[in-house]
């Protein structure tokens, strides 16, 4: 039996409704007089902001940790940006599976694609994810329905944020992927909601879950942007950019780290391949 949640809104009620309110619209500025108070309210001792030594986690992407001088700083939210087909979904799954194989719990929230497709894609790549789905170490949450109705103005941003936080807390997941973060980007009507949703989601996840999170963000074909509307890139703690570029009449995949709070980074872009079983594998600098 594949463990898939078909309804998005079936999270336990013990979700901390207040977490959302406490930090709603608190910009992360040192000039914000409420900043200290907000963080005291929301952050535990394990918070990356409280700790001076930043713990790093293995991304599981072959050759990628060295660009981050060891791995991704734990407990923060990162943007994985790229055009369609650049490998964002595979990258995110690989990140989650790496944790799961090391005994962690992981949650993948799919907003664009049906969970069945995600599972088939993973299996086509030679990743046997069924055992992890069966024992609940990996959960794929289907949010496709929820977001397809979002265009009908019934889009409850606060509920989405609190539900995601609650779900992560209940399951004790340490790795989370939301793929993609802003599905309503091209709907002008929904613009204010999307901005609010992204900002609150990122701040709430970072301050309340301790989970290391990847948020995928699609950019239009041929665009030099790293995010759809610009909010994600400021709110996220780091940006990983995936591209398909033309080199000598061939299209090659590239990966680069654009920004990463709390660690040195190697800004060099590397070519990469998506290989059977191994997934995303970095090759040489370009
Ligand atoms: N089984 C596979 N073997 C090799 N490459 C694959 C396999 N599955 C997917 N890919 C590559 O990954 C690409 C899609 O990656 P994906 O993570 O779905 O992109 P994105 O989420 O950015 O749209 C495909 O275009 C294909 O080139
Ligand atoms: Mg995808």
List the main descriptive attributes of the protein structure presented here.
alpha/beta, binds magnesium ion, disordered N terminus, single chain, 286 residues, Rossmann fold, 30% helix, two-stranded antiparallel sheet, binds adenosine-5'-diphosphate
Give me a quick take on this structure:
With 286 residues, the protein is α/β, with parallel strands linked by helices. It has helices at residues 17-23, 35-42, 88-101, 115-124, 130-134, 144-148, 157-171, 191-208, 231-235, and strands spanning 4-5, 56-57, 72-73, 77-82, 106-110, 138-142, 175-179, 212-218, 238-247, 250-260, 270-275, 279-285. The strands form two sheets. A ten-stranded mixed beta sheet has the order 1-6-5-7-8-4-9-10-11-12. It has a two-stranded antiparallel ribbon with strand order 2-3.
Structural commentary:
This protein is an alpha/beta fold. Helix content is 30%, strand content 24%. The protein has one domain (4-285): 3-Layer(aba) Sandwich (Rossmann fold). The strands form 2 sheets. The chain has a 10-stranded mixed β-sheet. It has a two-stranded antiparallel sheet with strand order 2-3. Mean pLDDT is 78; it is low at 1-52. The protein binds adenosine-5'-diphosphate and magnesium ion (MG).
Topology of this protein?
Layout: E1 4-5, H1 17-23, H2 35-42, E2 56-57, E3 72-73, E4 77-82, H3 88-101, E5 106-110, H4 115-124, H5 130-134, E6 138-142, H6 144-148, H7 157-171, E7 175-179, H8 191-208, E8 212-218, H9 231-235, E9 238-247, E10 250-260, E11 270-275, E12 279-285
Parallel strand pairs: 1-6, 4-8, 4-9, 5-6, 5-7, 7-8
Antiparallel strand pairs: 2-3, 9-10, 10-11, 11-12
Helix pairs in contact: 7-8
